[in-house]
Amino acid sequence: MNTAGKALAEFIAEGTEIVESLSKDLLVLDQQRGLEPDPELINGIFRAAHSLKGLAALFGQERIAKLAHQSEDLLDRLRLGKLSLDDQVLDTLIESLDALQSLLAEASREEASDALGERVSTLGTRLADLGTVSAASDEDPLDRLELSEQVRAVFTEYEEHRLRENVRRGVALYRVRAAFDLSDFDTGLTELNARLKPLGEVVSTLPSSEPGGLSGIAFDLIFGARVSTEELTQKLEGTPAQLFALVTRPAAAPVTPRAPAAPPVPPAEAGSTPVRKTAKRKPRTPKAPAPQTPPDEPLAAASSTMPTLRALEAVSSGEASSSSPVRTLVQESPTPRGTRSEGESARSLTQTVRVDIRRLDALMNTVGELLLIKANLQRMVENVRLDAGVSLSKVWGQELSRETRQLERKLDALQEGLLEARMVPVGQVFDRLARLVRRIAREVGKEIDFIIGGGDVELDKLIVEELSDPLMHIIRNAIDHGAESPEARQAVGKPRRARISLHAEQKGNHVVIEVSDDGAGIDELGVRELALRKGLITDAQAREMSRRELLNLIFLPGFSTASSVSELSGRGVGLDVVKNNIGNLSGIIDVWSERGQGTAFHLTLPVTLAIIRALVVGVSGRTYAVPLNSVLEILSVKPSEIRTVERREVLDVRGTTLPLMRLARVFGHPESHPERHFVVVAGLAQERLGIAVDELQGQQDIVVKSLGGRLQGVRGISGAADLANRRTVLVLDVGALLEEGMSTERRRA
């Protein structure tokens, strides 16, 4: 990759990271819809947009820089209270995020389409014109705060706005004075801020006019508290902080009409209210030591005149949701951390992984120890070479054995460290899907609660990216086919809002992801009739199929129960692709559905595909590797213990019937007739299958490589791997074999 290519890749990686951070914060803001927005959150989104603008300008990405700048302008008006956060503003911000994502995608391909350019231009105009101006009042709340003009003069416009909002809402305000030693004042100030933030809002931090001692420095923090004075005092124990209350005069009593019949104030009068001075951007001046404030009142005396902390005006969740077609709910808090185009993908634009430097340091230490072992081994080999003809001593053998064990331990540590470095939380994909659900639900006019859970479960970065598109297909189907319209749900006694859940859970060496809805469910009889009409199954097969087998027909290519083709689905493509993609990841997909109650898809996936432990087996002189994370147990059975039930070979294992598959027969090898068979019991999700092999050759760590384009479609094989003796063997695709085993009987019928 040349220098320009590397620079572009770095920009895409960093830009994608900022957009994902913006997406996560906007998701939180969406969850708080109807409540007083968190100023820290809005300020964080503003800073992220500002960072993206600067980054794009630095790399010459003018379209991205311009849209980020327009988004930043809107966010600036929002954080300064010049606009109110309403649904239209929030929706447009999320739409601009989608546009930024599309611009990044085009930038990564070094393209610039006119269609996207026009969409971005229209969106930029909307961002500039959007928003409702916050209601102005005749009185500036700051005039009621006993704070000198000299102190107010050093506030930035944002700080002045936040202070005004705190006064307007009746929040108790304090000046927190703290002195620190010059050698570690930054650490002390950070710790003090960390204690204060959960208790309220740190509006401003100013150098104090009161000296901090001969070798110290003092700060004044203007703080709006959400807790009582007693609790605040208690929480600040052990810190150098001193608390002084800022006195606020009561607001002037509102003018009440003398008689019920009194006419209301004409709108024209309200409109003639002079524009507040905060509407003008205040020139930012360098912060100077705060001038001496008037003598502070004793805290106890001040508290008697302080306004009582008033609870925020919280709107009930039901009221908040009623006006929102889509509501995203995250069961765990996020970790602290237009027009739909065809072929869009929820896949990330970059393959980079952010790795903690401490993890890299640990890997470097391991590599250093490996180099020491290598030096020891070289020394031992050199000694043997110099003493050629002398028989090797027992001590030399013991030393070699010790070095080998050390080598094995360090290699295990290195492998584990590298695998951990590849792991990322699945929440990265979940957050991107939340935006998708939001937009699609609006397009089809449905009201949906999207519940996310288990986002902190970690998977290999490669699997997470490959998983994004299958999940997108399933969720689109859930919105289009599963969730009913609000009116249809109310007619059958269901809540007006449909519920779609996306949940991840780790189970041993696998991760299970469930996508479920409480919609209409799948009509298995309709599936049966459609499959017969399309000639996908025969009448005889249909009569013998269980309900579960009927439901699994939806994964056949070209199968769709949709009566019409919509923009979202109905063309019979999607679920077969989903199943193939999951199979390519050595996973398996299962479906459950109940008419009138909903549908659930369960995706069972391995944690990683990079390096896996495998069981090496032999069949008819050939060697295969079976991923050990799919092996439940190994049995040794006599040929007489194998029974045939309805033309299918089975085994009785502890009272249960286990379907049996002879591996030699699957791949067309000549079958041997040993006195005993080894049966590898493999399982994924709820499926179990016995795989008969001739011999077991041991276990080994393997790196699975793709078979390439021509051999990639070979059923039952997921790839190839080199063994320790440099032999290349094929790796079994357990998921595909399980499905093959389960469907054998149906095909024979």
UniProtKB/TrEMBL annotation:
Xref: SUPFAM superfamilies: ATPase domain of HSP90 chaperone/DNA topoisomerase II/histidine kinase (SSF55874), CheW-like (SSF50341), Histidine-containing phosphotransfer domain, HPT domain (SSF47226), Homodimeric domain of signal transducing histidine kinase (SSF47384)
Stretches with biased composition (Low complexity): 313-324
Stretches assigned to the Histidine kinase domain: 400-609
Gene Ontology BP term (one): chemotaxis
Keyword Repeat carried by entry: no
Keywords in alphabetical order: Kinase, Phosphoprotein, Transferase
Name the record gives this protein: histidine kinase
Catalytic EC class: transferase
EC number annotated for this UniProt entry: 2.7.13.3
Superkingdom of origin organism: Bacteria
Chemical reaction(s) catalysed: ATP + protein L-histidine = ADP + protein N-phospho-L-histidine
GO cellular component, one term: cytoplasm
GO molecular function per UniProt: phosphorelay sensor kinase activity
Modified residues (Phosphohistidine): H50
Pro residues bias locations: 286-297
Chain ranges of the HPt domain: 1-107
Keyword Phosphoprotein: yes
CheW-like domain: residues covered: 611-743
Region span, Disordered: 255-349
